[in-house]
Amino acid sequence: MSKFSQEQHASPFQLGWRKFSMNILSMFGLVVIIIALFLGILGYLITPDESPFANRQYLELTTKKPGFSVLMLKVRLNEPSHKHNFISRMLFGQRPDYRNVPVDSIGFAGDMVEAYGYSGEKSDALFLNTFNLADVLYALNPDANIKSDGQFVSFTTLDGRKLSLPVSEMRMRVMKNNLVKKVFLLGTDRFGRDLLSRLVIGARVSLSVGFIAVFISLLIGLTLGAVAGYFRGWVDEFIMWLINVVWSIPTLLLVIAITLVLGKGFWQVFVAVGLTMWVEVARVVRGQVLAVREKEFVEADRALGFSSGRIIFWHILPNVFAPVIIISAANFASAILMEAGLSFLGIGVQPPVPSWGTMIKDHYGYIIVDKAYLAILPGLAIMIMVLAFTLVGNGLRDALDIKTDS
């Protein structure tokens, strides 16, 4: 079968995908978005720090450079074990059962663990912490006394178990299970948190804001634009007046105003950004509906007695989705920028929720010292994501343009 014949029998989707896949830059953007979605969906399952919001702080390890590693002594918290199912861990993280103590080395004295705290470059400054072997390995009942005769340690756990274990066995368990080497692939921020984990969870925040904001803008824009274009008359005039009023207000100023009214927070950013992005969708949809409403199939729908709602949402809107998809890609990029800008100003996503904008705000002062990467890495993440959606939007524009050759 010839190429011309294949294109004749191909569906519009196949033709569009064929043209889109030939655009190298657009495919690059699509790959970046897929990777970001993969990271955002898995979230805490793949981050080195799986605590909620990747907010585990080590004040001894602030602003450490990429590749930094340190020994950690895991000390059991005297709390019930926090076990979550797969979905809960993926969405909300896992509360730690252990407190990690950065150490240079550890030793033993009877039933005690002697932990020499991390001293960095000051190797002569040793900070000695002591923990009972039982307190390191188990969650203990705070009212129960730990007894030791030098050979065995007797204690009561938080769940009521009474145990008596050999000191030698407990020492071996501490060395095997509770002394681990932790590597910070991208270093730590100014609070000693794992920078890689914060970047990954920050991708989830940015993508979530983009998805919800675009959904809100489509919901409002499609409805108002379709109603204005189909009914025309005073309905069209009123909706266009509303569009022009909102259009005349600077976008960032309007977002800030809505955020101040709704309050600061995670969900408020979704609504604030979405309520400012529907205008362009409504204008484009109105123009498309004005053209489509005069087509023969719409006249046939009216003749058959179909309701206006059915004609608009089941017959007209499916024929105007191509420009809407292109606008949605551009709006997605704008939403990521807006969220980062609001968080940088302190009126967007609030700590400890990780946001790329907040990460830049916390570390932009380090740009003039030798730790500029603390602000540059989240800035690069924003730039790459915005560029990816822009490239995909450009590719969709070319692929869905019926005036271009296949």
Describe this structure in words.
The protein is an alpha+beta fold. It has two domains: 3-38 and 196-399, MetI-like (MetI-like fold, Orthogonal Bundle), CATH 1.10.3720; 68-184, no CATH class. It has 16 helices and eight strands. It has helices at residues 3-9, 12-21, 24-42, 86-92, 133-137, 167-178, 195-231, 233-248, 251-262, 266-274, 278-292, 296-303, 308-316, 321-345, 356-363, 373-399, and strands at residues 68-76, 98-109, 112-117, 127-132, 147-148, 152-156, 162-166, 179-184. The strands form two sheets. It has a five-stranded antiparallel β-sheet with strand order 4-3-2-1-8. A three-stranded antiparallel β-sheet has the order 5-6-7. It is elongated. The mean pLDDT is 87.
